[in-house]
Amino acid sequence: MRIPETLRDAAVLVPLVDHPGGMNVLLTQRTADLQHHAGQVAFPGGRLDATDRDPVHTALREAEEEIGLPSGAVDIVGRLDDYITGTGYVVAPIVGFVGPGRDYAPDPSEVDDVFEVPLSFFMDPANHTRETKRWRGIERTFYAMPWNGRYIWGATAAMLVNLYEVLTRKAAA
What we know:
The relative contact order is 0.21. This protein has helices at 55-67, 119-122, 154-172, and strands at residues 8-19, 22-30, 41-42, 45-47, 74-79, 83-84, 89-98, 111-118, 129-135, 138-147, 150-153. A hairpin with a 2-residue loop joins strand 9 (129-135) and strand 10. The protein has a domain at 8-124: Alpha-Beta Complex (Nucleoside Triphosphate Pyrophosphohydrolase), CATH 3.90.79.10. The chain has three helices and eleven strands. It is globular. By secondary structure, it is an alpha+beta fold.
């Protein structure tokens, strides 16, 4: 992958929803008419604004803007490895716990749907498939995780693989 000379800072919230029956990962389906990443499955997040103190603030602000998740409803527990995208962003994935039973209010200009996937799906490495496609004249290999008619791929899937790796290391320690 060619990395742009100037990277822009961004952050996403990796929300883990703690249900009595098990942990889920909250994701969004972006609207089909967006200029970038239209229709893709993603974590809530975006670019750092000048008013953001740090990536945690960015992730929480974006989650509130995109899906109506108040920052006070998130218990930040950590940060995954930064991810550099092919579109020139260095993304900080911020992990936080969210209680179950919350009603979300997706911004219809950005988000079509908010849904949850069992964490156990991402904790099974058999679901971490690799695909290759040509993009901007370059052959790229990326993670893809099809789930119940949803296609989770690219940066989002790579961050989920990183979450799997971190949790697996902690369990083995």
